[in-house]
Amino acid sequence: MGRYLPYMAFGLLIVLLVCIGLFADRFVLYLTMRVMLLSIFALGYNLLLGRTGLLSFGHAAFYAAGSYGMALFYLHINPDPLLGILAGVGLAVVASLVIGFFCVRHTEIYFAMLTLAFGMMVFSLIWNLRDITGGDDGLVGIGRNPLLGFSIAKDSQYYFLVVFFFALTVWIIHRIRSSPFGLVLAGISENHQRASFAGISIKSYRLAAFVISGAFAGLAGSLGAMLESNSDPFSAHWTHSAEPVLVSLIGGLHTFSGPIVGSVLFVVLREIIERFTQNWMLWLGIILLVIIMGFRGGAMGSAEQYLARWGRKFREESAS
Amino acid sequence: MFKKGLTRRDFVKAGLLTAAATGLGAGVLKPTGLWAAEAKIKGPVKVGYQAILSGTLAGYGEFHKMGVDMAVEEINAAGGIGGAKLEVEFRDSTLKNPEAIKNARYFVDSWGADFLAGVDSSGQALALAPVMAQLDKPLMVTHAATEKLTEQEVFKNGVKQIFRICTPTYQDGNAAAFVAKDLPAMKWATISPKYEYGYTCWGMFKDTLGKLKPGTEFVAESWAPFGTTDFRAHINTIMDANPDGLYSVEWAGELITMMKQADQAGLFKKIKHVMLPVGAAMDVLEGLGAEMPDNIWISGRYFFLYPDNPKNNEWVAAFQKRWKHYPAYVSETGYSSIYAFKAAVEAAGSKDTKAVIEALEGMEFDSPAGKRVFRKEDHQAMYSVPWGLTKADPKYPFKIMGKMVVIPPEECFNRPPFEGAASMPPFKS
Amino acid sequence: MSSLLKVEGLSKAFGRVVTADGLNFEIHAGQITSIIGPNGAGKSTLINILSGTLAADAGRVFLEGRDITRLPTHRRVRLGLCRSFQVVNVFPDLTVFENIQIPVLGIVRKAHHVFRSLRRERGVTERVMEVLGQLKLVGRAHDLASELSHGDQRLLEIGIALAVKPKLLFLDEPTAGMNPVERVETLETIRRLSATGRTTFVIVEHDMDIVFSLSDRVMVLHRGEIICDGTAEEVKNDKQTRECYLGEEVIE
Amino acid sequence: MLESLIHVCLAGLSKGMFIWLVASGLTLIFGVLGVLNFAHGSFYMLGAYFCYTLLSMFSDNFWLGLALGPLCVCAVGFVVERFFLRYVYHLHLPYQLLLTFAFVIIFDNLVKILWGGGSIGSPTVTGMAGSVSIAGRLFPTYSLFIMAVGPLVALGLWLMLEKTWAGRIIRAASSDREMASALGVRVPALYTGVFVFGTWLGAMGGGLAVPYVGLLTPGMGEGIIIDAFVVAVIGGLGSLKGAFLGALIIGLLSSFGTRFIPSFDMFLIFILMAGVLLWRPQGFFGEAS
After folding, report:
1. Are C186 and C179 in contact (CB under 8 A)?
2. Which of B4, B361, C149, D221 is least enclosed by beta carbons within 10 angstroms?
3. Which segment of A80-94, B77-91, B143-157, D273-287 scores lowest on mean pLDDT?
């Protein structure tokens, strides 16, 4: 039973998403797309943070690489959406391969600072290469051409493309987490010294995790560029890198579904708070504080603990 | 959240269309007085306003809000827009494009806004263009100054939903050149923000001044990144070039910092002609107080002592009474944006997008900043903002404009079709 | 007797402290070799250099005739050189099964499979169960490593090292912190595994009982030099060895 | 040309010393507690705001504001360490960083609520408002003052760490927490003390910034904290000597860069930061491990 629970949850989620796509109004549709994009970003990111134990402050750069890769490909080479996404992800992979190659030499705070430095280099490149990137104005006018003959111009159509990529991401990340590779990443996070004495080249595995998470950041970025029809230089700023960290933490760093739940909470809570006060940031800070001080497992981690305790109690009672 | 279905709004929309059609059917008869007001506008008129309310520029959002709140209070006290109540909601735009887009979508799709206004950042304004085309509601930009918005998005791409009520970069670049041509300065240099706004304004200034006064030299440029707190190296660069004039579109807090540090370095003793296109912002004038040197050329999007006519003076007095503050330029543009919508809705007799756009195009209306006309082709408000020389006045705890020079917008704003030299000043006619 | 590991002129210094001073020796397959020496003799440094976590200043290391001086740790492991640690060094929040699974995957070169489910790796599972069987830990396969007793964790530690099927295994104080019962069991395990002839053990120890009861050969390290090398009997009677241990521990 | 060079140098030195004032507290806290404190920028901001408010209360007496303002921020620092940070020392890096990040968000918004979102132009210091002529060009007196304060703070820190009993304990605790604890040092109290002291240093930086930057804005700490990170990193995280040198390098580099490489950008600074992290992560003075 327990084994099939995740699949059922996944199925339910997709059904819910399709229902939203068919029946919800345009703003809910848009917000749901934002939640899914953030989830894609955070799911990939958490493979690096939650699984491999590396805190990166540079992944906004790969989001931006996806966004700008997509935009530039659309504007100068070919307006096909699928090729555009491929170009965006491709650029993000190349960028994360190059940057990751240097960054995985360190761990902990040194890794965080290195990724911060490289991320800010990318930010500054985007800001300054005005002829290519449009400087602080960003790139505008990214349209949505038909995909394999299907129109995705309307939000209600594009929505299903996002659902597709979201589902694909969930599936891939799940496969990775239950693969030998995923186990080894967890091992590296737990004890990298022991892992290297298990015949594992930790740098290569860290790099692989870095590039995979970079690729998903790029996917989120290129889908975001099509959703918003522009590329934003601030999407490369380090504060944007903090977003997947926040989301993973809110949802649960060491759980698979944490980033998804966290994204939902992050976007929806903010939407609710903003209806009452313009100081929504203050509340975000306070919520963060509460989570770190009291609910370190995040929403899913805390729920799991609670369920486990409840389950044990139930078993004890039925046994006696 | 899901209940607010499309059906209801579609129904309302259909009703409005019918109303608009009836209005058109009624012919060219200009609706006047109470008849128009009571017969046409159903339900509240909702305006979604976004401005930056967090971070280092949060003060601008507060100034926006003062002007807008005042307009809402006045209008509702006087019976609303065409008899309908006016409602405004504010949201924090931050500086990120996705936030601006989300706000716009929230206002229109969830809150049910009829009109949008605000927007500080040029990048955000450009990013909003396709969204406004999709949402199909008018957006009145009150601060973002990029000329690309009106030239490219409105004029060339035909995003007719966008209007701009504040002066664009033409005022900062071209108008400055018209003032500079009469100054005894042949060598100019700049310290400006290291982003599009800075590059564009300096480019326009150089271009126009070069045409107006051939032989003018532009000897040094020093670009300061967003968030610069130490301008001493930039000031050194300028002083090394030994120019006659300094042109700077630094703005807000960074301008305050730069002016203080330039004064300490003795820059104003060496360089006699200094032009600050956004120096007349209230936050800058008040922030510098007596430390603002005399005889600096300043301008903005509005200055509360111009025009010196009853409408403006009364407004400034009312504003001061309401907020214990002099109106900043974004207060005026925010305030006037609401009145522009009011005028347009009452003229159109409807709040339907198409009708309001038609009413706004070419519309002439009176505002504290003086008479404004929305140019039909690019939806840019044409009105004049003075350039003036700073001087102390015992009545104010900060420097004000003494001698003022007004460059008419027709003379210094780029013209359609925004291509080739003929579109840019100076114009033959 | 064939030479498994050969060390030539190995030197290492930290500032002015010399911890390895031109060491030359060979390790022979099938023998249990012990390295002893007083604190600060350079035993840990030697293991660190040989296993690849520290770079030597000079000298070369050969494994089965192949120069491994510059190879990184994981490459040495794959060639058959592994070690265990003085302190418990396992993957605490993974299950016992997973603890063994990681090195097995590493050595069968399947760890990089990104997309295949772990459950499908039948061969890996069998090998893990085999190792757990050798350690008599099968019953605890699905407990977290951190839930094991200290002795079992040490055993698991050796298990992780054994899972890579090493030809040469360094055990760094394998019985430190164990109770007498666990100690006897562990020694028994080592002896049994050595007897199979698949793995050659090199033990670094403080406990002289263990050293002399287990070792075929004993090397005494002192200030980065080998001062004695021979059978247990020979070392016991060596004058220099007795001198350098004087006041630290009495050799019986 | 020479006068220009001298002034570019002076501008760089004063900027460097200014960053050092903020980076010193950050470095000290990291060296002892092992926590990279994002909220250090907020303490800088709070220092500036408290100093400004107090000096306006005491008829623009800057020195009184500078003496009292940072002390108020110390109380804030105490609360942050004693009731929050203390409980995350044993946790993974993300929790520590995000906790301090949460405080950045909270303090930024509290300042906005309490003092308003607008920027506040700050008064000049009596007696230091003017400039002195150096090599034929004016240089602000107050910048000279900053250039003097920086080395004084460095000297003071050095004397405290090397020559006093408290300093020895701090050094012992920073190199080996367990050992210090075994020797009877009350490590938690020591950590609180060091954190509060580091907070004071950051808040002093903020107080001194009031006339130096000439402006207070909510969010003013976010810019300086990145500068301070860069300086702390290139000096070798936790090394005060390194941070001092790092601050000088960054100050001079950005000054000369702005003057002589017009396209100069933070890009170069971040390249330097990455380069140091890759090839000499222990900084200029750290021992190779």
Report:
1. no
2. C149
3. D273-287
Instruction: Sheet with C66-67: list strands edge to edge.
Output: C17-28, C3-14, C58-63, C66-67
Indicate yes or no: CB of D15 within 8 angstroms of CB of B283: no
* Rounded-to-integer distance, Cα C64 and Cα C81, Å: 10
The region that residue B118 occupies, defined by phi over 0 for left and psi between -120 and 50 for alpha, beta otherwise, is: left
A130 found inside a domain:
yes
Q: What is the pLDDT of residues A286-296, one digit of tens each?
A: 998 998 888 88
User: In the structure, what pLDDT confidence band is assigned to residue B35 with cuts at 50, 70 and 90?
Assistant: very low
Helices D266-279, D240-260: axis angle to 10 degrees equals: 140
Looking at residue D67, which CATH number applies to its domain? 1.10.3470
Contacts of A205 in chain C (CB under 8 A): 111-112
In a domain, D60, yes or no: yes
C-alpha distances (whole Å) from B141 to each of B119, B155, B162, B193, B239 are 6, 15, 7, 21, 37
Predicted confidence (pLDDT) at residue A302 exceeds the cutoff of 90: no
Min CA distance, A209 vs chain C (Å)? 10
Q: Which amino acid is at C222?
A: H
Q: Using N-to-C axis directions, what is the helix angle for C96-107 and C122-135, rounded to 10°?
A: 120
Domain count, chain A: 1
Of the CATH numbers 2.30.30.100, 3.90.930.50, 3.40.30.10, 3.40.50.300, which one belongs to the domain with range C1-80+167-178+199-252? 3.40.50.300
What residues does B273 pair with on adjacent strands?
B245
Range of the domain at A226: 15-238
- pLDDT at residue D54 above 50? yes
Best interface-test mutation with D: which of B60, B93, B229 has the largest number of D CBs within 10 A? B229
Q: Do B6 and A25 touch (CB under 8 A)?
A: yes
Contacting residues for A311 by C-beta, under 8 A, at least 6 apart: none
Give the mean model confidence (pLDDT) for residues B281-310: 93
Q: Lowest mean pLDDT: which of B284-298, C71-85, D121-135?
A: D121-135
User: So what's the pLDDT on residue C7?
Assistant: 86
What is residue B14's predicted lDDT score, i.e. its pLDDT? 41
CB distance B412 to B175 below 8 Å = yes
What is the average pLDDT across D88-95? Answer: 86
Any idea which of B228-237, B319-328, D41-50, D175-184 has the lowest mean pLDDT? D175-184
Average pLDDT on D109-113 reads 91
Give the residue carrying structure tokens 């049994």: C192
Residue B59: closest C-alpha in chain D? D118
Specify the residue for token string 């033959």.
B428
pTM of the model: 0.90
Continuous segment of H or E residues that includes residue B404: strand B400-406
Q: Is A199 on the interface with C (CB under 8 A)?
A: yes
| 3+ Cβ–Cβ pairs closer than 8 Å linking D and A | yes
Determine, for residues B92 and A280 on separate chains, whether the beta-carbon distance falls below 8 Å. yes
ipTM of the complex: 0.88
Whether the per-residue pLDDT at B85 is higher than 90: the answer is: yes
Quote the CA–CA distance of D60 and B100 in Å, as a whole number.
41
Q: A54, A105, A111, A121: which to substitute to probe chain D, counting the most D Cβ within 10 Å?
A: A121
Q: What DSSP character marks residue A149?
A: T
- What does the pLDDT read at residue B2? 38
Flag whether pLDDT at B392 surpasses 90: yes
Domains and CATH numbers, chain B: 29-167+308-382 (3.40.50.2300), 170-300+385-423 (3.40.50.2300)
Q: Locate the domains of chain C by residue range.
A: 1-80+167-178+199-252, 87-164
C 71-90 residues inside an 8 A Cβ radius of A: 72-75, 77-78, 82-83, 85, 89-90
Low-confidence ranges of chain C (pLDDT < 70): 1-2, 245-252
